[in-house]
Design a protein that fits this description.
Elements (H helix, E strand, L loop, with lengths): L19 E6 L2 E6 L6 E7 L6 E4 L2 E4 L4 E6 L7 E2 L28 E5 L4 E6 L9 E6 L12 H9 L13 H6 L3 H7 L1 E2 L3
Parallel strand pairs: 3-6, 5-10
Antiparallel strand pairs: 1-2, 3-4, 5-11, 6-8, 7-9, 9-10
This protein binds copper (II) ion.
Length: about 200
């Protein structure tokens, strides 16, 4: 008599995800959320005519080490840091933090940035900045150039004669200044939606 070995089907194990940590408890697989590695999603929106454009949420609070993922829902957008390296815009992210510029993003595409330096990060959408399409991210302590008045780089020289900020930086346009959510509101609510 010939014994035929039984071939067991290969079990499919749950894959490791970037967002989740899998832990085995008494033979069962459970999913555990870890706040510090949660990816925060911000959608890039537009009405059908393109006359109304916005980031949603427009303000978020995260912890150092967390990643933000921008996703285009409608229209074409960029996510671009307020930084002199980005077309001489004024500095509104922490000193020492790397500026980012996604370039044009089309519907369905996304772009990620991981934030490690604490402070306030202001950013804009290149084609829609003058229409007020901007957003604000607070990473840990709400400090740095992004926490200062929009014209800080012009006033310091006048008041203290000690500024090293170039006065040629492009200021934040009025509609964008109007759109930014207050830092205090972001600290309180953690997520601030566009109104
Ligand atoms: Cu846009």
């Amino acid at each position: 008599m010939i014994l035929v070995g039984v071939i067991y089907p290969i079990l499919t194990l749950p894959g490791m995800s970037n967002d989740k940590t899998w832990t085995s408890v008494r033979g069962q697989t459970e999913e555990t959320d870890e706040i510090s590695t949660e990816v925060i999603e911000i959608h890039m929106k537009s009405d059908k005519l393109g006359s109304k454009v916005w980031f949603d949420p427009i303000g978020v609070y995260i912890k150092p080490g967390q990643t933000v993922r921008w996703i285009v829902d409608e229209n074409v957008h960029t996510t671009t840091a307020y930084h002199p390296e980005n077309n001489n815009h004024s500095l509104r992210i922490p000193r020492g933090a790397s500026p980012w510029d996604s370039g044009f993003l089309f519907p369905g595409s996304s772009y990620e940035v991981t934030f490690t330096v604490e402070g306030v990060y202001d950013y804009f959408c290149s084609p829609h900045e003058v229409a007020g399409m901007v957003g604000r991210i607070v990473v840990g302590n709400p400090t740095g150039p992004g926490s200062k008045p929009y014209d800080y780089f012009k006033n310091l020289y006048d008041y203290f004669k000690a500024s090293r900020e170039p006065e040629s930086w492009i200021p934040v346009p009025p509609a964008a200044q109007e759109a930014f959510p207050d830092i205090e509101l972001i600290m309180k609510d953690k997520v601030v939606h566009y109104k």
